[in-house]
Write a structure and sequence with these properties.
Trna Endonuclease, Chain: A, domain 1, 2 domains, 7-stranded mixed β-sheet, 12 helices, about 55% helix
Length: about 300
């Protein structure tokens, strides 16, 4: 059996396990996590903008507040539709939580005022303080809209935490020792049979990339293990792109002394696995942790 044929089978096994694990109990937990996060996000956006009376100032301090503001519009707008009505808006500021320039923030505030839901924001038209009931109504209306979009992320994050913990438990059961996470700038920073959880590997002068689990293999060789959970095939493209981007940066900096690994779980498009293999990324599966254990035995130096 070819290596890719093996991983095609693993893709199907992983998909089946992901679907079989869907259940109302965990679904409710994921929804609660997403809803709690959304409520916090809206609450912070209200506070930063003096209850929506100064959206411009809020964005000048943190562009991620636009997530809430987009959902207070009538109708609520996704990133691309909002960019159409406000071309000056720097979309990346939302993801990076970076500051928006005063000029761009002013344009966003203008667009917000034109498109905001009058029903949800009556105090702005009346030029008064909002009543507590009005703020509660806005929070109850907007939070579920944001949470519904973040539900898949909440499940993926939960599974990713479980995935990383399973890898750590495997390492420790085989005698590996945990090192305090710090910037790894050379292979000797991570000794043989030692690992770091949530650390960073140097990828150039003044540059580094986050690593889920770094493993010391010996002779200054390290494994940068990325743990990736995907909800669907489209999402798997993004997850794999992230691995390949890091792999390219590390290879340029380290050459053969760093090996990139991807621990996969969920619904993964087979062609994405081929991209990893073509890039010499070591591919492992959460439902086949024994294969990872054997790989470690074969590659310790």
């Amino acid at each position: 059996m070819s290596e890719f044929a093996f991983h095609e089978i693993a893709c199907e096994e992983s998909r089946k396990q992901y679907v079989d694990a869907l259940n109302p109990g965990e679904g409710a937990l994921d929804w609660q996590e997403a809803l709690t996060e959304a409520r916090q996000l809206v609450t912070e956006a209200l506070k930063a903008s003096d209850k929506l009376r100064n959206v411009e100032a809020a964005l000048c301090s943190d562009g991620s507040h636009s997530i809430a503001y987009r959902h207070i519009l009538a109708p609520p707008k996704g990133q691309d539709p909002f960019k159409l009505i406000c071309p000056q808006w720097p979309k990346s500021s939302e993801k990076n939580a970076s500051r928006v320039s005063a000029a761009a923030a002013a344009k966003v505030a203008e667009a917000f005022d034109r498109w905001r839901s009058r029903r949800l924001t009556p105090w702005l038209d009346a030029k008064r303080e909002p009543h507590a009931e009005e703020l509660d109504s806005l929070l109850l209306s907007v939070s579920p809209l944001i949470a519904s979009q973040r539900l898949a992320t909440a499940r993926r994050n939960r599974l990713a935490r479980e995935q990383e913990q399973a890898v750590i438990e495997l390492l420790e059961s085989r005698g590996w020792k945990k090192e305090t996470s710090s910037l790894v700038e050379q292979g000797s920073d991570l000794p043989r049979l030692h690992y770091m959880h949530k650390t960073r590997f140097s990828s150039g002068v003044g540059q580094s990339q986050e690593v889920d689990i770094g493993c010391g293999l010996g002779k200054s060789t390290v494994l940068a293990m990325e743990c990736k959970v995907s909800n669907d095939e489209t999402n798997s493209v993004k997850r794999i792109n992230d691995v390949l981007k890091k792999s390219a940066a590390w290879r340029k900096k380290w050459g053969e002394f760093i090996r990139t690994g991807a621990m996969l779980q969920g619904v993964i498009k087979p062609s994405e696995v081929r991209r990893l293999l073509d890039d010499n990324v070591e591919v492992f599966w959460s439902h086949r942790l024994g294969d990872f254990a054997k790989w470690l035995d074969d590659n310790l130096q």
